[in-house]
Design a protein that fits this description.
Layout lengths: L1 H8 L2 H19 L16 H5 L2 E2 L4 H11 L2 E6 L2 E6 L2 H9 L5 E3 L3 H7 L9 H14 L2 H20 L8 E2 H18 L6 H17 L10 H30 L9 H8 L4 H31 L2 H21 L6 H5 L2 H14 L7 E3 L3 E3 L2 E3 L4 E4 L1 H5 L42 H18 E5 L6 E2 L3 E2 L5 E6 L2
Parallel strand pairs: 3-9
Antiparallel strand pairs: 1-11, 2-3, 4-6, 5-13, 6-9, 7-8, 10-13, 11-12
The structure holds protoporphyrin IX containing FE.
Length: 479
């Protein structure tokens, strides 16, 4: 009432100005200044063209054409929703940093169906925070030093021990075995080679195919098979959890010695059984696929860059000499911290290979950025690959050049544009473990072997990464 009274007291011209202001604001909301772009076909939009497989070291024809035509921020219709696609480093950062305020994680329903409704990739808000805290505590730097470093080295040596000189094998398969065994051990103390671990690994392959397939729950489809695999995997996890809970009752929680995520979650959190199972499954997924592909890419890039292999060998030879002088056999945290060039190789691999090419978000408020409107409810895709391969930000972006990351190199790229691990409140919880895994694996690889491709292969983005031939290599031991 009082607002109406005050309005009546205004002069007619002020009233008119007020009316025009609100009218224009309404028009603006109805016809916002959307980024340029196209909608493609009805319903399907441009999804198929966007997802069309392409070499992992490129951004693909679709992105290339769209960026050339519309610029680094454009609109489209993807995954059945109106979408803003961003190849702009600033906007990508802005999106990630404003998680929960302006944008929210929003993966397609199929991912939630497979990874589970309590998976960290689909949770938002407080529940995401508490799951994240459990994961971060589990992957804390104290645990990395004391538990994970020796375990990573043990698993590396175990995988490499089965390699035979002169006999071709799939490097992709081997690094997948390595990261899977490592995660299975750390998540629920499964030992490599045990029947249960092998069963889980086989189920997991079917499961993965479903994560990236169309969500058609009809008998025989990849999605259907993956849902069945999910149940089998959860069956194993559940059985293990029951055994563990029973043992904890029998011997007392404090005497339980298994230092894995399962024990951690059972002892230290108020999560339900279903929530713990989804947490374990999503960590197995997040921690296995990504770092194994990163390692396969490193092996691939290094094979055609002998200069980098040589510099790595020098770095790791020095570390080995120091270890021998100390009379030690295993790598220490101090040794790991000396692996500077190795970290350059890791960064460059992730920049050029782009294991996680883009993430899914949606705008939860109406957002304005560089004059463009991003309407509330629209899907938003920050495409990291497009930033990492942007020639305005990286000289010769398609070249594998680990030296660009050297601290004193003149053209060292800005770290703020490097988003291989995402950023903001959802920054990859396993960043430090991933770096450690890759560095320790590389330490032994370059000191023990020379390797070459058995036949040409190349990583493709489907958009998940894969070497279609499995990256077949032959090794020769360094004596
Ligand atoms: C080179 C290897 C890796 C890469 C490139 C990578 C990349 C990423 C990216 C880009 C995200 C953000 C997803 C988003 O914002 O929607 C993410 C999230 C996550 N990653 Fe990684 N990751 C790697 C290894 C690992 C490992 C080894 C683990 C665990 C053991 C792990 C656990 C997670 C978890 C739990 C999340 C969810 C974080 C959250 O939502 O708060 N990642 N990762």
């Amino acid at each position: 009432m009082s607002i109406l009274k005050e309005l009546l007291l205004l002069s007619p011209s002020a009233l008119l100005a007020l009316f025009i202001f609100f009218y224009l604001a309404r028009c603006k909301r109805k016809h916002p200044n959307l980024p340029p772009g196209s909608r493609g076909f009805p319903l399907l939009g441009e999804t198929f063209a966007y997802l069309k497989p392409h070499s992992a070291t490129t951004i693909g024809k679709f992105m290339e054409l769209h960026i050339n035509r519309y610029g680094k921020i454009y609109r489209s219709n993807l995954f059945g929703e109106p979408t803003i696609v961003s190849a702009d480093a600033g906007l990508n950062r802005f999106i990630l940093l404003n998680e929960g305020r302006l944008f929210e994680c929003s993966y397609p329903k199929s991912i939630g169906g497979i990874l589970g409704k309590w998976s960290m990739l689909v949770l938002v808000g407080e529940m995401h925070q508490s799951m994240r805290m459990i994961s971060l505590n589990f992957l804390s730097s104290a645990r990395l030093r004391a538990v994970l470093l020796p375990e990573v080295e043990r698993q590396t040596l175990m995988v490499m021990a089965s390699w035979k000189e002169g006999v071709a094998f799939s490097a992709q398969e081997e690094v997948k075995k390595f990261t899977f065994n490592l995660m299975a051990k750390n998540i629920m103390s499964l030992e490599p080679g045990e029947p249960e671990t092998e069963k889980l690994r086989r189920e997991y392959i079917t499961f993965m195919k479903g994560v990236v397939s169309a969500p058609l729950n009809l008998p025989g489809t990849s999605y259907w098979k993956a849902l069945k695999s999910r149940s089998s995997i959860l069956g194993v996890i559940e059985r293990k959890m029951e055994e563990r809970s029973q043992r904890m009752i029998e011997i007392g929680e404090e005497r339980e010695r298994e230092d894995d995520l399962m024990g951690w979650a059972l002892k230290q959190s108020a999560l339900s059984k279903e929530q713990i199972m989804d947490l374990l499954l999503s960590l197995l997924f997040a921690g296995h696929e990504t770092s194994s592909m990163a390692l396969a890419l490193t092996i691939f890039f290094l094979e055609s860059c002998p200069k980098a292999v040589q510099e790595l060998q020098e770095e790791h030879d020095n570390i080995l000499k120091m270890m021998r002088e100390r009379g030690e056999h295993g790598l220490s945290w101090d040794d790991y911290k000396l692996m500077d060039f190795t970290q350059c190789v890791i960064n460059e691999t992730l920049r050029l290979g782009n294991v996680v090419r883009f993430v899914h978000r949606k705008a939860i408020r109406h957002v304005r950025y560089k004059g463009y409107d991003i309407p509330c409810g629209w899907k938003v895709l920050p495409v990291f690959a497009a930033v990492h391969l942007d020639e305005e930000l990286y000289t010769e972006p398609h070249q594998f050049n680990p030296w660009r990351w050297k601290e004193n190199s003149s053209g060292m790229p800005a770290m703020s544009n490097f988003m291989a691990y995402g950023g903001g409140p959802r920054l990859c919880a396993g960043t430090e473990l991933a770096k450690l895994e890759m560095a320790v694996f590389l330490h032994h690889l370059v000191l023990k072997f020379r390797w070459e491709l058995e036949e040409p292969d190349c990583a493709f983005a489907f958009p998940f990464l894969d070497f279609p031939k499995g990256l077949p290599i032959k090794i020769q031991a360094i004596t």
